[in-house]
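Worked example

This section walks through a single chain of length 326. The input is the sequence exactly as stored; nothing has been trimmed or padded.
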Amino acid sequence: MELPFEKIERKVLVKKEATTNKELGCNPEDRKTEQIINYGIVNINKPIGPTSHQVADFVQKILHINKSGHAGTLDPGVHGSLPTALGKGTRIVQALLNSGKEYVGIMHLHKDVSERKIKSNIKKFFTGKIKQMPPLKSAIKRQLREREIYYWNIMEKNGQDLLFRVGCQAGTYIRKLIHDLGQKLKVGAHMQELRRTKAGPFREDTLFTLQDLADAYYFYKEENKDKFLRKIIQPIENATLHLKKVWVLDNAVATICHGASLNVPGITKLNDDIEKEDVVAIMTLKDELVALGIANLTSKEIMKEEKGLAVKINKVFMEADLYQIK
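Given that input, the structure is written out below as tokens.
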């Protein structure tokens, strides 16, 4: 199954043809190893036991960096994908917090119910937009919230135990989802095990353990071998794969880095499905992340207009001097 953004095949519209100066910036994959250690993201396979904050702290200590931040808290008893941003890239986690998530888990019914009845109730009451009350132990105010369940599939049933896969909007409480299904079935149910398999664009095929990271860093520092470390640490740009994008001219990059918002004349390419108020990633023609912002115009309007505010910038990631014409 796919999360909503994975189903979208976005087209790229060319506003104006342009080239990029090879002397300015560099392709993300060409950054030096010491740069990616302080400006990258790792998809950590969080173990059962530590909190998400503790795991991010372990990453920080392993790499000897001053900052790290995780995208989307997992309870100590839950394992799986925990994207953790490094150093100067830490703020990118904000782009992931509201992205869709996928989980695989085991729920236990307190009395046996037919698989047909379970699937029927899931389809009727727990697919699409639902109302959910956060559990008693939660970090947010307890009030009914609307959340979307993209899919919830029963993969296997063994008596009162069910293996399931669920794709959902960020902020959905899976433990509460299972409890509510048990109430609807009038038998009760609880979660036995849960693993996060997707967090936005990060999937299980890029997962690495804390031990993997520690080993890779050792090889890099002690044996001058960085191949394993460069495999584990992804470019920060990978945290924006689910976002709509606007590519800008070289001469627009420096102005954005110095606090200006993005006007139409600075745009060279863009995705075709941008709507007003969308979060968009501003990219260089080398596919480097410059900033995140909020769209002020739609794709159609940007293609039509020759001037005006296109994107209001709210987070700049690129260093100001990388695209300074010398």
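What to look for: The longest helix spans residues 210-223.
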